[in-house]
C-alpha cells in the first residue's frame, strides 16, 4: 500500500519500476497521452496507507458537424 516517498518523484520516469517483471512504462505513457490531450496527472501517496491518482482533462470538443468540416 502506498508508494515510498523516495520513489514518488520518479513514478513518471520511463523505465522506473520497483517490480521484478515491470517495464516502468505504464505511468510514463499515461502521462504523455494525458498531456497531449491538454490535461495533467498527479499522484499523492502515503506509504502504508495508499495512493491517489488525479487526472484532469479539458472539456471535450463537440462532435464535428458537416458545416464545420
Please characterize this protein's 3D structure.
This protein is an alpha+beta fold and 69 residues long. It contains one helix and two strands; from the N terminus they run αββ. The chain has a two-stranded antiparallel ribbon with strand order 1-2. Strand 1 and strand 2 (50-56) form a beta hairpin. The longest helix is centred in the middle third of the chain and has 11 residues, at 26-36. It is elongated. It starts with 25 loop residues before the first helix and ends in a 13-residue tail after the last strand.
Give the DSSP E fraction (strand runs of 2 or more residues).
15-25%
Give the N-to-C terminal Cα separation: 49 Å
Class by alpha and beta content: alpha+beta
Shape: elongated
Topology:
Blueprint: H1 26-36, E1 40-46, E2 50-56
Antiparallel strand pairs: 1-2
Structure summarized in a few sentences:
The protein has 69 residues and is an alpha+beta fold. Helix content is 16%, strand content 20%. The chain has one helix spanning 26-36, and strands spanning 40-46, 50-56.
Amino acid at each position: 500500500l502506498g508508494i515510498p516517498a523516495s520513489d514518488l518523484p520518479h513514478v513518471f520516469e520511463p523505465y522506473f519500476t520497483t517490480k521484478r517483471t515491470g517495464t516502468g512504462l505504464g505511468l510514463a505513457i499515461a502521462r504523455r497521452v494525458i498531456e497531449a490531450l491538454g490535461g495533467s496527472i498527479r499522484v499523492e501517496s502515503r506509504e502504508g496507507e495508499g495512493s491517489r491518482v488525479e487526472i484532469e482533462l479539458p472539456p471535450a470538443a463537440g462532435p464535428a458537424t458537416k458545416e464545420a468540416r
